[in-house]
Structures are given as C-alpha cells and as structure tokens.
Amino acid sequence: MNTSVSVSRPIAVRVLIGDDHRIVREGLRQVLGDPANGAPEIVVAAEAVTGPEVLAQVAALGGRAGLDLVLLDIALPGRDGLDVLQALRADWP
C-alpha cells in the first residue's frame, strides 16, 4: 500500500507595485513577501514610480501572461492610477 502524499507547491502570484513613494513600495514588498501570511507565494515581479513606467513594465513582462496583479497608487506622476488602469484594461482585457 502506497501511503505517500504528493504535496504541490502553491503557484506563485506575480505582482507589480506602482507607487511613487519608495517607503510604500518597500513596505508592500515586505508584507507581500512574508511567508507567514499563509497565502500562496507572492513574488514582486516589478516596481514602477510613474504611470508610464507601470505601462512599460507591464508590457515588458508580457501583460496578463507575466503578471497576476497590479497594485496602483491613484496619484502616480506622469499619468494617474485611474488612467493607467483604463489603459491596462484596454490593452489586456
């Protein structure tokens, strides 16, 4: 009788953090990367400081294929977070 149990690793959730405040990005990175949170592994795949940089990073990572979640500050320089969200939804529905 085979009593071994197959344990699979949770799929990593790939996140981009878009915020112009370094301390916020660092804090989110620490909280999201803490294995004690009990969630699947979360990997901060990229960070961006401006709205255009968010869009460029998402495109460079392959859009929806390369990211699972984008955390956006609403008051991003260059292009606000709501405008960036609209562009993301248009480009990667």
From TrEMBL:
SUPFAM superfamilies: CheY-like. InterPro entries: CheY-like_superfamily, Sig_transdc_resp-reg_receiver. One of its GO terms (biological process) is phosphorelay signal transduction system. The modification 4-aspartylphosphate is found at residue 73. The keyword Transmembrane does not apply. PROSITE patterns: RESPONSE_REGULATORY. Gene3D superfamilies: 3.40.50.2300. This is Response regulator receiver domain-containing protein. The lineage of its organism: Bacteria, Pseudomonadati, Pseudomonadota, Betaproteobacteria, Burkholderiales.
